[in-house]
User: Fold Transketolase from Roseibium marinum.
Amino acid sequence: MTDLDKHQRMANAIRFLAIDAVEKAKSGHPGLPMGAADIATVLFTQFLKFDPTTPNWADRDRFVLSAGHGSMLLYSLLYLLGYEDFSLDELKNFRQIGSRTAGHPEYGHGAGIETTTGPLGQGLGNAVGMAIAERLQVERFGKDLVDHYTYVLAGDGCLMEGISQEALSLAGHLKLNKLIVFWDDNGISIDGKVEITDSTDQQARFAASGWNTLSVDGHDPEAIAAVIRQAQASDRPTLIAAKTTIGFGAPTKAGTAKVHGAPLGAEEIEGTRAALNWPHQPFEVPSDILDAWRIAGLRSSQAHKDWQKRFAEADAESRAEFERRNRGDLPATFTKAMMDYKKKLADEQPTMATRKASEAVLTVINEVVPETIGGSADLTGSNNTKTPQTQPVTPTDFSGRYIHYGVREHGMAAAMNGMALHGGLIPYSGGFLIFSDYCRPSIRLAALMGQRVIHVMTHDSIGLGEDGPTHQPVEHFAALRAIPNLTFFRPADITETLECWQLSLENRKGPSVLALTRQNLPSLRKSFEEDNFCARGAYVLIDSEDDAAVTIFASGSEVEIATDAHRELSNAGITARVVSVPSFELFEAQSDDYKADLIGTSPVKIAVEAGIRMGWDRFIGNDGAFVGMKGFGASGPYKELYEHFGITKDAVVAVAKERLGA
Ligand SMILES: Cc1ncc(C[n+]2csc(CCOP(=O)(O)OP(=O)(O)O)c2C)c(N)n1
Assistant:
């Protein structure tokens, strides 16, 4: 058997596993795996550094299947290479409930899947973050411990999505030379030929953003190997435009949209078996070919051993620190630093905007947690995410800890996911809360994947004032609270800001959003408490000795309004309590008893939040009173806007009195 024969039979093993699994599931996407099998075979058998026996080896090369619909390409590879989590039975259970082989690759379903993909373009964005992470970690731990590539397979769809522009221009700017993207240039998407919708010169586009661009016949293994070698030597990220035929080998459907996302059908499969000379039963891989794949799986075991040796020889401090950061543990000094600062705040009772409070807290955090990587989407001075410890990362210097992401919220959030997935880093970002809409798909994926990324989102309501309704979040609290496994925080003062930061960092299993104000807020927590009150999601800030006639629930900047109203109600002889609600999600996680006690039995329940009502009925019931927004905001000085929209102490007092008949 010639090398070429062997290559083709190995690639055909991928093709037929994909064909057979899609056929058995009666759904899926055979076209991409069939078209990209040659690229994948060359990459995985000759270049990619990985060890199936230790899938999470920190210095492995990363492979991201950005075109996640081609999931059977990845599952076939993982099975053939000998990854334990991907048995033949798993492939036979493709797309079934509980299998590791979901419709699209799901991070956490099995070791070997580096990220969840399916929403096109996200994988490309993640890969940029992974490549940034690699460069950052090289600066911190040296080439002996960190030296890997990030490879991506992206389709036409990934490149058409807007996120691709943010991702590629960021990567080009940062000169991420160890990022290598294969573009599966098959000219086909779902509606037919790509030319019916797009006529971009993709290579010119990438080149314009500082990429190295190469092209290759995606079915010629020698040419593919040569082009990867060239890409590896580049001083810039590389796009490899690989001309392929979607559904390669299918006699009537190859090269057409028919093979993109539907089973081939018995007749076409028979024809494909004949055309590719693959006379085997469904899911059968001849033993010589399976052996060849398994041997390919062992290819990097020596590289892994060498790495282990270098790791063992590293100094004890670097070893311990490398392992701690990769495990995701916070440093032992973290809790004490936070406690000390909390005590100081209780003494000093500062008045400041929570965005400023966040900066003050971050200055404490960044001193003791060296793995945080800050940033902002061109709003550094507004988001207050940069502290003295975080010098900017530049194309030539990755020793810094602060990324100027540019005006690229979506690219930023996707890259942050990639950094978190890479391991060893805790990314946090800055942006305006209103533009959470611009990066929501990546935030959702962070939640789905259970990744610790922290989004500082400032200018969180009409309280931002003059910039007006285009910049004033109204529905965003509700929209973010709706994402499962995302913790949305809206702290009311500096102490709550500290507590919410602490909770965000301690939550390894999901992302957090901190919604922070532009306007000043007083300290509302009057005494030092070791307990993290925000951990309960909602807590009684001001209690009443007797059964309270009124309970006022509020979040963020409106807690001040609630406390002012409380004072006036008390003066009028009306018993009231104030509940601060920094996080709906953490409240829901409390015991039923806690929740029932907290909501209480006041005949009048009022919620105050400068957003829409959605979600607050949980606290105040259908018949509760809501003081907040009903529609979009307006442009004007913020105090006047609060008056204009009736979100005031007087409004709260008035509704309380009216309902009490007082
Ligand atoms: C953000 C997003 N929009 C739409 C889809 C639905 N979708 C899945 S694949 C696809 C076409 C992709 O075409 P291409 O990347 O060329 O893949 P190929 O046809 O080569 O497999 C579309 C629109 C998606 N998965 N993600």
